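Worked example
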Amino acid sequence: MPDPASPATSLPDAASPAASLPGAASPATSLPDAASPVTSLPDAASPSLPAAAPKPPAGPAGSPGYRAVFGVREFRFVFVAHLFSLLGVVVSELALTVLVYDLTRSPLLSSLTFALGFLPYLLGGTLLAGLTDRLPPRRILVVCDLVCSACVAVMVVPATPVAVLLVLRCAIAVVSPVFNGTRMATLADILGEGDLFVLGRSLLRIVSQSALLTGFAVGGVLLTVVPPRGALAVTAVTFLVSALLLRLGTVRRPARAAGKAAASGLSGTWAVLRNRRVRALMLMFWVPPLFAVVPEALAAPYADEIGVSTAALGLLMCALPVGTIAGELFAGSFLSTATRSRIVLPLAVTGVLPYLLYAPEPGVALAVAALFLAGATGAYTLGLDAWFVAAVPEEQRGRAMTLMTAGMMTVQGIGMAGAGIAAEFAPVHTVVAGTGVVGTLCLLAAAAELRASGATEK
């Protein structure tokens, strides 16, 4: 669903316990603060902590390029674990939605199953964010995967009632921001705080976007072969594989705030947000997806409004993530670090301007072009990632990144709900075009605050 972290997606860029379901996108109780399984999982027999990630020579664009990221052994394990998590996220999202509908024949409960992937994200991101800096990161990642696998395993049991299925869905979403924030902070440990980190984050986002294009197709094919509970069983295994890869493929690192006084709960959250620069950067991560999701949320009503086929609807759904992938690949492969930094504000501010093309109620071709252009502006996140990791103190990095990803998923849920409400009172094309106007004004305000905070310094 978001890693989370592209503005064009509802799947978190990171997906292992993800927003939608076990794991991304897209994929028990919350982790307790003390005396929890997190603190009791052994870290013995771990490889020693390696030196900082090497800085490979720059390529023609002044950037090491994506190939250099795969040269880091630990990242390869994190990347493959991410693939397994995404598989779990997307398949379980589809399978659980189908299962709830089969059990209840209620469209409301079936759609609620998807919505519950967003709602608890803010709760987990604010109340449990402190875990990410107070506990060893590898331990958190492994335990979160095990919690998700256990929740899905309970879903597989035929006697599990629908109410419990929904509670388990919420529990996974509560754990998800802790996992995603910890993984993002750990990438900075593995790859350093420079270009390798930026490109590593970009790769995880690209994979998450690709999951939107292929994941539901894979899940649909799987559901023609096995029943929904069988598909969920596959998901439980994918989380176990992810946990194993992270346990064996990443090294033991101490907690970032070990030996330091760290505020907990909401006071710790405020300690992060009190920093004006960090707060401004978070706003620039949160505001674009709030508006970017509107055409996706209204794609089906718009297709009906202009009277096109389901194949055309598929094009409308794919255009935004395809544009995002293209923009990220171009920026990561051909632009220098300095250029990626310079284009952050111009691309972010103009990100939803293409939605103005919806004003005359365009046909499919023009609407797809608008969505592709809007998605391509998501390349601004590469430069923004670099600013963010440089601005956050190391002892607060896990909490800050957890808050950032939790906020991104939450605003996407708000944006989708707001789009639906607005479309009850106005034609869909008017709502999308209006989003282009209102969103641009809000982005201009966020960019002004970001510039005033000094966050655009190179």
In short: The two ends are 31 Å apart (CA to CA). Confidence is low (pLDDT under 50) at residues 4-60.
